[in-house]
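Please go through the sequence and fold tokens given here and tell me how the chain folds. Record follows.
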Amino acid sequence: FVLVIIQMIGLVGYAFDARNVVQNKRRMFTILHSVAFIIYLINLTYQLFLNPALRHVKVVSSVNISPLKTIFLYERHTLPIKNIILNIIGNVMLFMPFGYFVYVLFKSMRSFLPYFLFFLFMIIGVECIQYIGKVGSADIDDIILNMSGVLILYIVLKIPFIKKLF
């Protein structure tokens, strides 16, 4: 996470420094967003599939297809409250940058149905890969939380004064 922040600060610094030199500001905007998107995707791939911290989560992969089952397990406080909050907020926020980059870089994704279906299949795909690769568990609650974050971002991006920026 810290690495992503440092990389993004570097990109913002470059953009700020180059803002008066660049002739085509829209092209610079697209290039910087594309580079930031690639950096995000590399970091997301690492966190979802390659992070050694995930290897100890499950020896045998498991599947939860009961909606809200994992979230309600948190009520029993089997984990420290800090971990519970980080897990819920982390799952909501995990795909928000992805949603932003897809919305900004691909005009066809600015309509609700393509945006929704793309992320639904993408997140389900991630859960399947995690299950098959034994790097976590396939959990419907993760899909619900990830999709909630992406949809919240979509709604924010549709606010008229924010929509004007793109």
The two ends are 26 Å apart (CA to CA). The beta strands are 63-64, 138-139. The mean pLDDT is 80. The longest strand covers residues 63-64.
